[in-house]
Structure formats: structure tokens, C-alpha cells
Amino acid sequence: MVTKPNQNLAAWNIFQGNMRILKKKQKQILKDFRDRLTAQQVEQLKGKLS
Amino acid sequence: MPHDSIRHRPNNAERKLQSVEVPLEMDADKIEKTLGTQELQEKAETAVSEFVQNGIPQAEKIAAEFGVEVDEQTRVELERLNIQAKQAEDFFKSSIKNRLLDVRAKVLNKVLPGTRIAELATHTAEFPFRQKLERTLNEYKKSPPENLEDIINTYSNYSNLHNRVSQANVEFPDVLESYLREVKEKHGLDKAIQDYKKVPPELFSYDRNTTLGYWFVQEACNEINDKGLARNREDAIPFILEKFKGMNELVLSGYRAADLPLKKEDILKLLMESSDTPAGKWGILKNIENISSLGQRDYDQLSDKLFDVYLDLDPTRLLLSEKHLQSFNELPEDVRTEKITKMLSNNSHRFATQLRLIDIPDSVRDKIWPIVDKNDFSFKNQFLKNADAFRELGVSNEDAINTTVERNARVGELLEFLQQKDIANYGFSEADKKYAYEKMIASMKPDQLLRIQGMRKCFDDEQIAGVAYKVLSSPIPEPRYLVALASNLDSIQLNSFQKKDLIQKMLSDPNSQGHLVHSLEKFGLSQVENYHIIDTVAPEQAFSELQKLTALQGEVITGEQKKLLRNKLAFQLPQSFLSNFADFNLTEEEEKAIAPILYEGIFVNLGVDRSFQVDMLAATRAKTGERIPFTPETQHRFENLFAQAKPSAFRKYASKLNEAIPVEMDLDNLPINKTYGQLEKLQARSANEDHDPWKTDLDPLVNKAIENKILNLNQPKDGEILVDFVKEYGMNNVPTILEWHAALERSKTLADLPQEIKKQIEKELKIEIGSFENKGQITKEIKKFKGRIQETLLNDEIPEEFLTTEVGKEIFGMLKGNTHWEKNDSLADMIYKWRSFSRRKPELAKVPENYQEVSMSIPALIRRSLNENEEELAQKKENEVLDNPHLIGIIQSLDSAFKGADQIQSTESEEEDKEKFLKRWSELKKDIIEELTQERHSLDLRIQNEPKEQARIGMSKRVEKIAEDIQKVENFEGSANLNEMMEGLIKVVPKKSKNGEAALRQISMKQMMEIDPAAAAGLKENIDFTSDRLTPEKLTAWNTYLVDYINEHYLNSEQVEEHTKHPAFSAELLNELKSLYGLNEDLKKNLVIQLRDKLQSVRNQGVEATTKTIDVSLVPNKGLLRIYGGDIGDACYSSQHKELAEGDYPGITAFTFVTGRGTVNERLRGSLLAIETETSKGENVLLVRANNPQENLLGQVDNDELIKQTLEQMKKLAERRGIEKVVVPLDPASASCSNRKNVASYYRTKFSDAERIALEDMPETNFNGYDVWNPHGSHGVVEI
Q1: How many CB atoms lie within 10 A of CB B491?
Q2: B444's torsion region: left (phi>0), alpha (psi -120 to 50) or beta?
Q3: CB-based contacts of B803, cutoff 8 Å, min separation 6
């Protein structure tokens, strides 16, 4: 019989960690994108209003 | 948050992973299921695809809300994240896979034999190859397959598998290696070569081949040597190439390790014809870097082959040559994309690839560009040459680009850059500019320019370097030097290839950069030629030698190494040079020459260069050699620097440093200088640096104390502590005791002593400090401890402290000392071995009866240290003695005769020896005839211009006589019987022929070598025949040979064959030879002898014999001091620790020389071996071997008296033991009699007439590989 230590779990945790960081970045990019568009829209509206 | 909950609450798959039991018989699929890896991988895939869905589609949704498109920047950024997520997934999968494979391998390995696994593996599954291979191999080593076929089959399977799994090179196991070794032993080398050829070449990796190649080439060299086919490795090359035909990879990977001096042409040929196997390709890649003189034509020739290799192994390189880049661009697009992606993922190639992307067609670049991190730049990248292109591509880190351009010193680019920036506004000062240009030129790659444009043109006005040079307001050394070099090169007698080579070596060596050029300038161009760098060793090699030394700092360098390095001075990197400065034993002249570059060494070596970079003005001035005032801060840095230097080196070179550094400093008043001055009064420097306690003990002690912040020698107080320590404990390298001592000195009372030191002392010395009243008691305990260890050791017992305490180990190291020959055997191991032997055979572990400690009283020598004036005067006198053209001529003629004779000395067959000699004679004959012919020609000329008839007739007669002589020489065929040869020679060659004399000298030397190889070997060992320089050592060695051997034996006036070992010479020949060697009259008139005596008296100035005596004890030992006797005597048998510890050689008892017996100054000063054995006739005999008092003891007492009394003591010992005869081996120093020259020469003078005695051939009489039993060998013994 061979006993298997949980090294695969370590690999899985690393993967999870990486994905978490990437998700944060992705979220930030999308947020920035939305903010930018909102700001543009506001500018446009301001322009229309004036 | 979902991911967090995954982490904290394991799901099913994860739970399984934490601890899974895998049944052995389970097959691959089942294992996977059991481990649940499939499940996890699917999870990862889902996570990533969700992530991707959440990216760009989400952005598009947002954009749609606002009624616009997603902009490019957002899209690219999100894409990059997607790629990274995909990478994370791949990485995870591959780790899971490896893990899985590993488990499978483990399972299979338990149930199947290795061969079966390999077979199975090839057909069924993938395996983590390396680990498994290793495991199985371990099994194999126990019972390797016996026939080649089995080996090949097994490993072919492995190799196929390995290629499939990792696409890496196959590590071919050493089973084959041992198989081949065995084949060679049993059936000879040729059979081994045949077998090697049967192995498919793709089974070898380059590295594996290196081991095998080394072995094969080495064995072949030995064979060639045994057969006498070639005299050295160079001559052996054609044979080797023939022998290994078709095994190019093997030779290519092994020749360097085996020291085979292949020429460039040979290597190129091997490269061109090497195979397409992995080993072949690696061979090309690795060797191409190592041929330093590869020219454009060679590259062109290899181009196609290189392209394939690079594409396969190192695609980045393809981007570096226009031609390769062109071919690369012709490849299909997807191949290129794949290759470049591979490069980008490789850390060491990433930067280069990024920057070269500019030159790749848009179609390929556009695909890759999104994954390049555009701000990820290395400032030191060498390949950036077009900054604008990068700007266009959106690389926004302007600073990075500019800095890179600047640092890369692409001169043209920099100039452009500076002009654009408007130099004046940029704020460059003149000094800044100058410094920048210097850096630039030092780091540019002139060799590339040179290859295309040639040296001269390089500095034409239109060329960038030329422009740079002109722009400067005042010239800086490097370009000025290069310009000078360019115009002077033609005047040096070198061919154009050599010149190019020289320049390339100087300028392209990345290690030395501009320093080399700078150093060369200081030496003057004419020196370049003298150093023969082109034909011999490249500066890089000298540099790596130095690096090795630096790494081994503290190790003693051999004389040979020193010589080698000294000759390379011109090419040293100053920083490495400095750290080894003291080890070079430079002459004053050499020191002067090197001084100007020394200061660079200090800066670069220890980081002060940074302070210079801040102070550019200072740096610039420093480089031009002006002395400048320093800021207090820099001055402080210097002081710190000096405090960190090795004490011995600092003391020796302090004044020289003062000259070399570009600042005025008052070195005399530095605290360290005072400290060292006081220390010198306590422990004088010893003449022989290798045995100077300043070097062996103080240097490492102080260095370690500074490193561990125990002492700061800039503080006068710390200096006092060090001086006190030496007073109390001697100049001994025992760092722990120094640490305690410092702590004790610093604390006012016992209570102040730091707790950890207290604890350490209590633990190590096994005492309770609590009960002590004052600090002095601790000091006493430490001294007692040290004394106790020494006493135990000399009583032939093993001090327990050696094993149980740190200080014990330190004291042991100090007592034992370092030797040239040291092997790192663990002390504990040796003690264990010896103890277990003592238990098994207690009677053999004890010193035999009647061996007892004895004491001798030896007259002391006092060497008064010379004052500076005296020293200078002595050096001057010494130089005067040596600088005698007549003497130099004599020594050179002796050297060349010896060298000539040595070359034709053959060891094996007489036939060959004869052949070689006769060949040499025909050469010598040619020389003689040429000399005579020339004389005739000049006479002919004079006759034509001679107005007087009478004179003309006289001269004509002489011409006739010369013609006759020529005929005679021509007709003299020579004889391999050297007596006959010489007798004949003096009859046919006219007396005044210089070449005739040279021939006679060479032939007689050959005879001397034959009849007394030991004497000749003694000479050879003491002389560096590779150098023409006349050193005191050379003079002394020749003097000894002339007086002790040639005059005493070879040309002994009695001419008795037993003594001269050659048939008697005729009176005429004897006379001729005597006058040839200047021995026919009063020896005092012989210039060599005369001047050597003079030299000796100069050297002995300050040595005064005294009536004072020194007590030297001889202490017999069987145990630890026998095991480490070689170390204590600094002798070669220190390689025998293990054997001695295991109780081998029971007949050997060691004696240790001890001075200051029983006092605090007790020191172990050397060792000798007393060996009880028998003559071949069965008489008991005491053999005295390895009689090695340490050099520093020899420097302290009357040598002859010490040796004489020691031998007398041995005779007394023999008497006590009932042994009749005492014998010593008669061989040169460093063989079996002793490693000390003085001992060997004492033996030679006193006993060389005695008859050799045959001893019983047994382990004791073969100890350490010397067959002293054999009266006909080179180490035979004589009775004393």
C-alpha cells in the first residue's frame, strides 16, 4: 500500500490563489471601464445641457 | 465568497487527496479515480472558462449599456488576464499530472522489476521519468545487466519514454559506463570503443557524453603514451581523432575535461561532421562558445548547422544574426510563433526576445505582442538598438528605454540621444560626459565592429567610435589607447589573425571589459608580445584561475600556479588580483608595474566604487591617475576597507597601497597599523609565507572576527584586545576563544559578561561560572582546557572534547594545520574508526614497547628582521647578482640543453629511444653544419675584399679546413651509445663551434638523465623551464646539480663506473665535458657557483647562529597523531587518513616534533614515520620515512643538526627495539623520504654513496604508493 500525501491540494490552492488575483484585476478593469464610460456620459450630458 | 469556502471546507475530491491509500495492484485509470484528480481538473477548467466569460463578454455588456464599443485598451488588458488564467490552469494540470505519474510510478516500482517497467512504460503510460529512473538505477547498480544488448534495450525503452514525456535529453545511466570500463579492463580499449559504437547515439546526452568522453580520451591518451606513440597530448591528437572516428560527439564533449589541446580546425571539423542527435546538437552549442578565435568565415561555414541547432535548443540566438534572422523569417508562421513564444517564456531569453521582436515581420509579432509586458524591460539589455520602434509600438516606459540605450552604450544611439536632449540643458558636466563615455566604450562590443570594419577604420571620423572620440573635449584613456594600438599593431610581429584575435580578446572579454584595456595601457604595448597570450592562455582563463583562487581563499597556492598567474599579470582583473595580492610573491619591479591599477581593485572589490559613481569627478580623475583630496566620508570608507583586509597582506603592502590610491592618507596613524605593529613584535613574520602564522592563523582569525562583528580594528580598544589575545594564547586560529576573550576584556566584572557567552563557556568547558570570583579564573580555565587537550593528544589518547565541543574542534584544526594535500575526512569518522580498531586489536593500537618520548637540543637560528634600507639594499644586491649577462647566457644554455634532452627521453622501448635520439642528432648536425657553412661564407666574403695576398692565402686555407670539417660532421652518423657518440663528436666537431658545444651539452644531459633519473628529477622539480627568467631558485637548483651531481658523480675524476654509473670517459672527453660545464679548474671560478654563493650570502644577511638552543621533542604516537601525522608534517600521506584510522599498516608508528613541550607555547611542529619491517634477507630494519619537520621549525633551528639528531634518536630507538639497521629512502624531496628539500638534500649529501638495500615487499614498504622496498626503483633505501 502506498500512502499519498496531500501535495495535490497544495497545487489546487496555488491555482485558487492565482485565480483570485486575476479575478480582482478583472473586476478592477471592468469597474474602470464602466467608470470611464459613465464619466464620458456625464460629460456628454453636461455638454448637451449647456 | 465561494473560493474561500472551497478552501476551508474541502470537497470530496480534496478530501480524498489529503490521504489516499493506493493499492499496489491498481492500474493507471483506477489510481486516477482514487485520487480524484480528474474531478479537480474539471473544476479548474470550469473556473477558468467562467473567468473568461466574465471578462470580455462582460465588458461588451457594459459597453452595450452605454451604446458604445469596448475600447482597444480594455480589450487587450482583459485578453492578457485570460491568457494568464489559462496559464494558471495549465500549470495546475501539469502539477497534478506529475504528481499522479509519480504515484503510478511508485506503485509499479513496487511490483515490477526495472526492465519490465521500462518496457511496460513505453507501451502504456507516461511516467515521471527522472525519479523513477533513479530509483530503478539504484537497483541496477546492485546487479547491472551483464550484456550490452540488455543494457541498450532497457535504456532504449527508457529513452523513448523519456522523450515522450519530457522531450528532454535522456540521461544515459552510468551502468553503461561501468560496463565499458569493465570491457576495457578485460578486452582493451578498442573493444570498448566498438561497444560504444553499438549504442544508438540518441541515447547519449551531452552531459553523459562528457563523462564518457573524458574517460575515453583519457584512456586513449594513456594507451598512446604506453605505446610511446606520442610524447604529449598535442602529439596524440591525430591518433585520438583517428581512433574515435565517427564518434564526434564523444570527442567534442570530452576533450576539454581530458585536457586534449584540440586546435580550432580540429574542433570545427568535428562540429561540421557531428550528428543530429541531442548530444551532437548540444556539442555544437557548447563548443561554439568556447572557440575564442572563431572568425566570420568559420561562422559562415557552420551557419546552416548552427541554424538547426539554435532553432532546436536556443531559438533566441537566431535573432542575433542577420543571416539567421532571414532564414528564420522564411519558416512557416506558426513555427515562428511557437518558437518565439517559447523564448518569451524562458526567463533568461525573455528580455532579448522582447527587444528583438522589432525585427520580426508584423504578422508574427502582432500575434505575440499582446502577451508581452511592455514595461518589463531590463536596463542592461544589449540588444536594444532602435528605441523609436519601441515607442511606436506603445512601450511607454520612456525612462527604461533611455536608460537602456544609455547603458548599452550603442555609441551612435547615445550621441543621437544626447544631441536630441541638447546636452547643455541636460545638465551633463564635462566630468559626467567623460565618465559616461568611458563606461560606454568599456562596455561596447568593439569586436563586432572590428569583424566588419577592421581595427583602423573603427576610429575613422565617420564611424561611431571615432565620432565619440572626437566629441570629447579631452581624450580619455581607452580610445586614445585604441587609436595608439591601431597604429602600432602593424609594427608588432604578428599575423593579421593574431592581431585580430588579440584585439578581440582584449575588448570583447565581458569579464574584463575596459579594465583590461586600461591595464594594458599601463604596461605599454611592447609588453603584450612578451606575455605570449596569443599562443598560450587566454586572459579569460587566467581570470577563471583567479576566480578559483578567490573562492579558495586561504588555501595555499602552489609554486606552479603562482608562476602561471604571475605571467598573466597584465591580464588580471584588478579586483581579483588585489584579493590575492599577497599570494603572488611579486618582485619589486612587478609590484611597481601593477601599482597604478591596484586602487581600482580596492574600489571594485569592496564596493567603494559606488562612492565613486556618486562623485564622478573623483572617478574620472582617479582613472587618469591624478591624486585628489577625498571627502571625509570617502576617507572613512577607506579606513573601513583597510580594517577588513587580511592583516598579512595589509602589513606587507600598506605603503604600496598608499602610493597606489589616488588620495593622500596617513596610513601610519591608522589604528590597525599600530595594532599590527605590536603584533609583529609578539610574533615575527616568517620568511616562508606558506608557513607564516600571520597567514595561516591570524588572517582567518581576524577575517572571521570582523565578519562576525566581534572586532572592529578601526577602534584602538579592539586592537588592544587582539594584541592581548595573542599574548595570552599565541597567534592561533581559535575564533571561539577570541570571542570569549573579547567579551571578557570588554566586561568590567564577571557580572557584566553577556549571558550567552557565559552559557557557552560553561557548556564548552564544563564549568560553573557562578562559583567564580573574577574574570581571571575563566581565563585560567580556558588555558587549562587548551593545555589538557594537547596533553591528552600527545599521550596518544583521544581528547573527548574533539567530539563534544566546538572549541575542541577548533583547537584540533589549529594543531593539525592546513596542508596542500588535505582531504576532508570527518574527524568524528576517523575517531570512530580508530576506536573500533582499538577495541578489536588493542595490542596494535598501542605504541610498541621502548618507543618513548625523547628530547633534543638544537642550536637556534635567529633571523633578525632587516630594516627597510637593509632590505632594499639586499634586494638591490640580489638583482645585481642575477643581472649578469654572462651568467644568464650560461643558465640559458643549460636550460635549453636540459629541455632538449628531456624531450627525447623515452620511457618505454629502447628501440624508440634510439630512433628519437638519432633523429635529434640529425637536427643537431644540421645546426652545426649551418654554423660552419656560415663561417665559411663570411670568410669567402672577406677574401673578396681583402687587399693583401698573404692574408687571402691564409683565409683560403681556413676555408678549406672548414670545408673539411663540414664533411667530417656530415659523415659522422652518430651512435645511440652515448659514450661512443660523445667520444666521436668531440673528434669531428671543431672546438670553437657553439652549436657543437650545445650538442655535446644536450647529449651528456641525456646520459645523466638516463643514469640518474632521481637527480635529474630533483632538478626538474626545482626549475621552471618554461620561463627564461633567471630566478634565485633557478640559480640555486643548477648550482646544486652542478656541484652535487655533475661534478661529484658524472664527471668524477676517478671515473669509476660504480660511482659514475657510466663507462669511463676518455681523458679527452672528460676534459672537454669539464670545461663545457666550467668544472675543470677551481670550482670557485665557476660563475654559477660563484654567484650562487654570493646570492646566498646576500640572502643570509640577518641570519645569525646563536649559542641558544631550542628543545625539540619527538613524541611517538599510534592513534590520532598518526592518522593526522601527514597534516602536521604537511606531507602527501594526509590522503591516507582512512586507512590509518582503520588500523592498516600496523608496523608504522608516527613521531611528532613538538616544541615548548609542557608550556603554554607548546606547538606541534612536524612529524615522521618510523616503520618496522624486514630486509629481503629477513633482517629486522627500522625504516625512517616522511621525515617532515615543518618549514617554520626549519627556519628556526640549525637544519643539519636537527636532521642529524633526529636520525640519531632513530638509531637509539632501533637499538632499544633490538633492530640492527636503520634505513632511509634516497629520493628527491616530495617523494618518500621527506617533503622538505633540506632533508632530502641532507640525505643525498650524507648517504648517496651507500648501497641500496632490498626490503620485504609488503604494505608498510609500499605506503602511500612508494615502492621503497625496491632497490632498483627510484625510492630505494640505504642504511645510515
Answers
A1: 9
A2: beta
A3: B827, B828, B831
pLDDT digits (tens, 9 = 90+) for B960-1013: 888 888 888 888 888 888 888 898 888 888 888 888 888 999 999 988 888 877
Closest CA of chain B from A39, distance in Å: 11
Q: Residues near B1223 by Cβ (< 8 Å), separated by ≥ 6?
A: B1181, B1182, B1183, B1184, B1253, B1255, B1277, B1278, B1279, B1280
- Do the Cβ atoms of A26 and B47 come within 8 Å? no
- Which residue of B38, B77, B101 to mutate against A (max A Cβ within 10 Å)? B77
Closest CA–CA distance from residue A26 to any residue of chain B (Å): 7
Phi, psi (rounded to 5 degrees) for B854: -130, 160
| Nearest CA-CA distance, residue B355 and chain A, Å | 27
- Residue B950 C-alpha cell reads as 698573404
Report the candidate in B789, B793, B833, B809 with the shortest Cα–Cα distance to residue B1136: B833
Strand duo A2-4 + B20-22: pairing: antiparallel
User: Which uninterrupted H or E stretch holds B1188?
Assistant: strand B1180-1189
Q: What mean pLDDT do residues B856-879 have? A: 76
Asked if the Cβ–Cβ distance from A33 to B22 is below 8 Å, we say no
Q: What is the pLDDT of residue B1212?
A: 92
Chain B residues with CB inside 8 Å of A40's CB?
A: 66
Optimal mutation site among B7, B8, B94, B373, interface A, most CBs of chain A within 10 A: B7
**Residues B1007, B1053: contact at Cβ < 8 Å?**
no
Q: Using a CB–CB cutoff of 8 Å, tell me whether A37 touches chain B.
A: yes
| Helices B398-408, B430-443: inter-axial angle, 10-degree rounding | 70
How many CB pairs (< 8 A) connect A and B? 109
- Please answer yes or no on whether B81 and A20 come within 8 Å at the CB atom: no
Does B3 contact A at CB distance below 8 Å?
A: yes
pLDDT tens-digit readout, B154-206: 666 655 544 443 333 344 556 677 788 888 888 888 888 888 888 877 667 66
Gap from B45 CA to chain A (nearest CA, Å) = 11
Q: Cβ contacts (< 8 Å) between A35 and chain B: which residues?
A: none
CA atoms of B985 and B974, how far apart (whole Å): 8
Closest to B929 (Cα-Cα) out of B960, B981, B966? B966
**A33 close to B (CB below 8 A):** yes
The predicted pLDDT at position B321 comes to 66
The pLDDT, as a whole number, for residue B1206 is 93
d(CA B1147, CA B1258): 10
**Residue of chain A nearest B69, judged by CA positions:** A37
Q: Any idea which residue has 596524440 for its cell?
A: B236
Instruction: Note whether B1242 and B1248 are within 8 A (CB).
Output: no
In chain B, the residue whose alpha carbon lies closest to the alpha carbon of A38 is B66
| Rounded Cα distance, B221 and B239, in Å | 9
| Sign of the torsion angle spanned by Cα atoms B1010, B1014, B1015, B1017 | positive
Residues of chain B in contact with residue A3, where contact means CB-CB under 8 angstroms, are 19-22
Asked whether the beta carbons of B679 and B642 are under 8 A apart, the reply is no
pLDDT tens digit sequence for B908-926 = 677 778 888 888 888 888 8
CA triplet B1146, B1148, B1150: central angle to 5 degrees?
130
Does B530 have pLDDT greater than 50? no
Whole-angstrom distance, CA of residue B719 vs CA of residue B642: 14
| Spatial CB neighbours of B565, under 8 Å, sequence gap ≥ 6 | B542, B545, B546, B549, B557, B572, B580, B584
Q: Which residues contact B1177 (CB under 8 A, 6 or more apart)?
A: B1254
Q: Kindly list the residues from chain B whose CB atom is less than 8 angstroms away from the CB atom of residue A20.
A: 3
Q: Which of B1144, B1170, B1181 is nearest to B1259 (CA)?
A: B1144
